[in-house]
Specification:
alpha+beta; eight-stranded mixed β-sheet; about 400 residues; single chain; nine-stranded mixed β-sheet; globular
Length: about 400
């Protein structure tokens, strides 16, 4: 059996037991879980791009989160804590490099103490081991260039290249008999009788069930299936700066601010990467296209869909000041730098280099509430992941179990 993605079928109808739509880390982990449970199962992964892990998986910060941020009892808390352990175990098993560098969540004002204490309580409730509270001297011991008046140190936080993890999963599932179709977009879904018929740009597929892990594209497929329109994926772009190579020693691991608990975003932070690079950011602004990684990327259809959704308008009315501040920082290197320098005062403006960007597929409810948990729905033989933002990469192996449980119930 080949360990590389198989070429797309350009004609006829291909038959499979399960089709997984989406070649990111969640889709690949789901295909892997299907085959682990039944190695004889015929599985196809359908990816519209020419390569795997092209969007959220390949553009995220590379942090293996520990589970400290999430509400006790939530799917995020439960699956992140379990998924973090499983992800590092997976990397150990497959010789994928990772580093348990630890994370500092730094308070720079006494007004942040209550949130810091709340995070400490969440860590205990969620079973995150080894979290300790530090004073200014303790911060300096972990990150000599950082400053703050208190912090939480999370020793289990780690860094990895999630694209490499996804590529390893792809090799694993193709070796187990799965088919991967690249450059293959789903254009129609028709559930008829005992099977589901998928029309794709590389030929028709007939399968017993479908699992959609399409991230930014999940909404469109959900609406094809008649799913609820009371929830929409709104794309938020996050831009990073990079620290020049000569200044990388300023950051030993991960330095995060105390988050604004009204939002599922973690604020502008310092992230050491597994290749030694250091990313600074991201911010969070509305992307003008579902896959608009640059400020100038605009898709009028995507933009109309976001602005026309009552949930986004309600969100914008409620938090317009925060939105304007994020937008200003997006266009001003100086404002971005001013935020960063609050945590690392010795950082200089000329040490910042343009960096990458990513798009977060964030579900927003019709009333303007940000959905702050993983969520998926099932209609007949089709299961759709409706919300799987960060820490989905960390939790992917654990999420896959629950997706498969729901799909095969």
């Amino acid at each position: 059996r080949s360990s590389a993605p198989r070429p797309a079928n350009s004609g006829g109808v291909s038959a499979f037991d399960v089709a997984v739509v989406g070649g990111g880390i969640v889709g690949l982990a789901t295909a892997r879980e299907l085959l682990r449970r039944d190695p004889s199962r015929r599985v196809v992964v359908i990816e519209k791009e020419q390569r795997l892990a092209a969007h959220q998986t390949g553009h995220n910060s590379g942090v293996i989160h520990s589970g400290i941020y999430y509400a006790p009892g939530s799917a995020k808390a439960r699956l992140c804590v379990a998924g973090s352990r499983e992800m590092t175990a997976y990397c150990d098993e497959h010789a994928i490099p990772y580093e348990r560098c630890g994370k500092l969540i730094v308070a720079i004002a006494e007004s942040e103490f209550a949130t810091l204490s709340s995070l400490e309580q969440r860590a205990a409730a969620n079973g995150v081991p080894g979290v300790v509270r530090l004073d200014a001297r303790g911060i300096a011991e972990h990150e000599p260039a950082a400053t703050g008046i208190a912090a939480l140190f999370v020793p289990t936080a780690a860094i990895v290249d999630f694209r490499r993890v996804a590529e390893n999963m792809a090799a694993e599932i193709t070796a187990a008999g799965a088919t991967i179709r690249l450059a293959s977009a789903v254009t129609a879904v028709d559930e008829r009788g005992p099977s589901v018929e998928l029309a794709t740009t590389t030929g028709a597929i007939s399968c017993g069930s479908v699992i959609v892990c399409a991230g930014l594209g999940g909404d469109a497929l959900a609406r094809l299936l008649g799913g609820s329109d009371d929830l929409r994926i709104v794309p938020f772009r996050g831009d990073y700066w990079r620290l020049e190579d000569a200044a990388r020693a300023l950051v030993r691991g991960l330095i995060y601010p105390v988050p604004d608990t009204r939002f599922p975003f973690l604020g502008v932070h310092f992230t050491r990467r597994i290749d030694g690079d250091v990313w600074l950011g991201p911010n969070a602004v509305l992307a003008f296209a579902l896959e608009g990684y640059r400020r100038r990327d605009v898709d009028l259809g995507d933009l109309r869909a976001a602005l026309g959704f009552p949930g986004f308008r309600a969100l914008a009315r409620r938090y317009w000041r925060t939105g304007l501040a994020e937008l200003a920082r997006d266009y001003s290197k100086q404002l971005f730098y001013d935020t960063l320098r609050r945590y690392v005062p010795s950082l200089r403006l000329d040490q910042l280099r343009p960096g990458p960007s990513g798009i977060r597929a964030q579900a927003v409810k019709r009333d303007g509430t940000l959905l702050d948990d993983f969520w998926f729905e099932r209609w007949g033989k089709v299961t759709v992941v409706r919300n799987a933002p960060s820490p989905a990469a960390t939790a992917s192996l654990a999420i896959a179990r629950e997706i498969v449980d729901a799909a095969l119930a």
